[in-house]
Amino acid sequence: MYDFGPFKFESKQDFFDKAIRFWNPDKTRFWQKAGIDLVIGRREGYFLYDMSGRRLIDLHLNGGTYNLGHRNPELVETLKSALDYFDIGNHWFPSVARTALAESLVNVSPGMRYAIFAPGGAEAVDIAIKSARYATKRRKIVSIIKGYHGHSGLAVATGDDRFTKIFLSDQPETFIQVPFNDIDAMEKALKGEDVAALIVETIPATYGFPMPKDGYLNACKALCEKHGAMYIADEVQTGLMRTGSMWGWQAYGVQPDIMVTAKGLSGGLYPISAALVNDKAGGWLNEDGAAHISTTGGAELGCVVGHKVIEMLQRPELVANVGTVTEFMAQAMREMLVRHGDIFTGVRQKGVILGLEFSNHPEGAVFVSRALYEQGVWAIFSSLDKRVLQWKPGILLDHETCRDIMDRFDAAMPRARELLHQAGKAS
To answer: How far is CA 52 from the centre of its chain?
Structure first.
């Protein structure tokens, strides 16, 4: 018997049967087929515990949601204290918590004027797109092939075919896609001067963190200025100190007109996201502030947690630790490339954002993910490039855990070779 307070299951298989029956059949079966039988029970810091008690080091972090760790004690206490005073609040009225978080976000985001809140990243992307359309009086949106910006109506239309066609959400006449790092293709898309905005992840996460070429993002911004389009920086996975700067666009020296943050802003405790806009993009807030309404957007409990997150991220000791973890991982990966270069073929890194390339099989990272899972490390492969393993160490990791992670990586490689060999024979 597995007992989770009000939730009880006869066995792990009993749980899986019910997940298939009542929740999501395809997703549940997918992970079972991949050899990942994880059902998260207790979680603490950068550790997950399967419902059966097995411990895993979390290097997925749910896309950076657990940037500061699972159930960070300081954030848990912040939320508990907030419950003595706050609830979701009422979106119609000025709010102490919303205003405080908005001020905090604008203060750490040069060039931004207003913060507009949502429950999650996709809705924040919708707000960003609508704000750009308002400001430019244009409709078309340019995004990157294999980009990812969420699953709501407007956000999903900027993404990969996998997520659009199944719901009849592909709109090639309005949402144009160009290859990443191809500035000529970008100019061709923008030169008609009928585009409202370019939206781009500073480093495209679901595509496996390909790094922008030197000057690419700045050139994109210059083209936007030349042709009257707005530049939207999607910082959902690259923001909040993960590149070594508060925002990824700061690390690359590019100034957006609009930016989006989510995931880690919540501390993993209460959903919150935001679109930050400059004066022009935020003009509609002066014309009709109720043009966009979200009952739970900017929920006051989430704002209290988000405010504490921003405060924590500015602490000198945290900023220093990001640098320490960054350098440790860079050096450790150089050593692993020497030891396992037959299957491990490259590293893409900016701060604590890493994409590890296993390019001797089109789904190489799927098998590496399984091998790591068996060694007690959870790192997910990139959905849109399964040769690449997403490697997202937490920004508060200590040296001992960093060393443990790499020891387990080293130990997982023989099993990864075995799985890759089996996959090669099967194909």
So the answer is: 28
The arithmetic mean of pLDDT across residues 235-262, rounded, is 98
Residue pair 90/417 in contact (Cβ under 8 Å)? The answer is no
Strand partners, 378: 58
Nearest partner of 282 among 39, 106, 67, judged by Cα: 106
* pLDDT score, position 17: 95
The residues that bridge with 399 in the sheet, in sequence order, are none
Between CA 203 and CA 274 the distance in angstroms is 19
Helix, coil or strand: residue 211: coil
Question: How far is 74 from 78, CA to CA, in rounded Å?
Answer: 6
- Residue 391's nearest CA partner among 63, 160, 49, 55 is 63
DSSP assigned state of 165: G
Of 319, 360, 354, 276, residue with least CA distance to 108: 276
pLDDT at 305 over 80: yes
319 CB neighbour count, 10 Å cutoff: 15
Give me the mean pLDDT over the 130-159 stretch: 94
